[in-house]
Amino acid sequence: MGSYKSGDSTFYSLIENYANFCDFRTLFQVFDRMKSERRVFIEKNFILVFRAYGRAHLPEKAIELFCRMVDEFQCRRTVRSFNSVLNVVIQEGLFHRALEFYDCVVGGKTSISPNVLSFNLIIKAMCKLGLVDKAIEVFREMPAQKCEPDVFAYCTLMNGLCKEDRIDEAVLLLDEMQIEGCFPMSVTFNVLINGWCKKGNMARMTKLVDNMFLKGCVRNEVTYNTIINDLCLKGKLDKAASLLERMVASKCVPNDVTYGTLINGLVKQGRSVDGVCLLSSLEERGHHGNGYVYSALVSGLFKEGKSEEAMGLWKKMVEKGCQPSVVVYSALTDGLCREGKLDEAKEILCEMVNKGCTPNAFTYSSLIKGFFKTGNSQKAIQLWKEMAKNHCMPNEICYSVLINGLCEDGKLREALMVWTHMLGHGIRPDVVAYISMIHGLCNAGSVELGLKLFNEMLCQESDSQPDVVTYNILLRALCKQNGISRAIDLVNSMLDQGCDPDLVTRNIFLSSLSEKLNPPQDGREFLHELVVRLHNRQRIIGAAKL
């Protein structure tokens, strides 16, 4: 390859331009011409392409090009291009692939030695994979490689330790970094503050905040947001609001996350009206609520039975020129459906489509559920078809709503067809879908098929395991068919699975033992035995309910 010559800079500008637009076809035409004219390739050319591959989510292409740099383009690779590719792979979440690439380059014949950034990236990948001990080993090897850990290396490792609930070790790292002359930044303290908040140790968190101030680190919006979020999760909303005032007083500008967290906390505590007041005071200060805030408030007001206030907030938002997002439209649609105002909800759906805002699965499922609830199954099914026509892919919630509605309407055959369609599209049924189908089958007298689905549930993930409602449906169906011995076996299975019987379970057995057996039994002996078994298993709350 020749040396640098006139015109090379033009090619470099073209590479930068096409890389910025991720126009890889034209970009490699430039590369081919440069090769044919024996132009000089510089490492910066490739780094620009690697970044473009990152934006285009093409990490494997970046690795492939990195491997071609020397032999095909006669361009020397350094740690800069190596780090660029490594970062692309990690940003894509391919942490195992990042470790493979790192080992291949550093352990191969490339003569590339990792620098501080390389170590930081690989420590991050290891922490993301939960390989914190391995990350610590790499961290400790850094000085031997003539790379002193910087504040980012410490922060990354601290974050990994906190995620593994090893906060005390993370705090020791804070002490160590200061001894080593590496001074912490706000982000360092924020990692630890977040860790103590999640641990629920407010005393240690407060001490860290004070320590942060003593070290000259300014509390930024992340610090305040972390603490405000923790206070909201604990229901300490007045303290969170007080902290917001302190935040403003200290000249730290709250952002959307700050306001969104506090308003969402108020909504969850049934204080949506207070949330609206907070939003009004924020708007007076020149801050405008986003779609997340409005959707939370609209939804909260409807759930609290304050439909007029919800509609008033909606109108106020539109009057202010705030363009509603799909999230806000969906919240409004869901609220109107809860109020039984299906015609108004349908009008909102039409308005949404007319304004170019595409309804999502949640929007449709709210309407479908609303129509089934008012006994209009025909309109619900029509909406389902409209959803498919508009290329909106149904999720597990949509299928669940449709199956539940069809089963409650006595349309078991149609519900089974939807169930088959759902499985055929690779969507895993949720608890509601299973319960609906089991209930529908049992009501139709197909108890054995219901039990078959129940056994399928037992093999599912923890979030799809049978609950007490599922057991009660099957227990009632078995007792109705005089299968009391099988019902007792199911109760035993229920206890083994860690599901406690409730008052409904008790009443099913008491009525069945007195009505279905000859001679009748009052069931007190069975109930006493059940309470004793729950006590023996340390399930005191379940025993108390019976």
Largest sheet: none
Low confidence ranges: none
Number of continuous helical runs? 31
How much helical structure, as a percent, in the residues?
over 70%
Q: Strand content of the residues, in percent?
A: under 5%
The backbone outline, from C-alpha atoms, is: globular
> What structural class is derived from the secondary structure elements?
mainly alpha
The average pLDDT score comes to: 88
Measure the end-to-end span.
86 Å
Counting copies of identical and different chains, the oligomeric state is: single chain
Radius of gyration: 31 Å
Count of β-strands: 0
Description:
The chain has 546 residues and is an all-alpha fold. The chain is 72% helix and 0% strand.
In short:
With 546 residues, the protein is mostly helical.
Keywords:
single chain; 546 residues; mainly alpha; globular
Topology:
Layout: H1 8-20, H2 24-36, H3 43-55, H4 59-73, H5 79-91, H6 95-106, H7 116-128, H8 132-141, H9 151-163, H10 167-179, H11 186-199, H12 202-214, H13 221-233, H14 237-249, H15 256-268, H16 272-284, H17 291-303, H18 307-319, H19 326-338, H20 342-354, H21 361-373, H22 377-389, H23 396-408, H24 412-424, H25 431-443, H26 447-458, H27 468-480, H28 484-496, H29 503-515, H30 524-536, H31 540-545
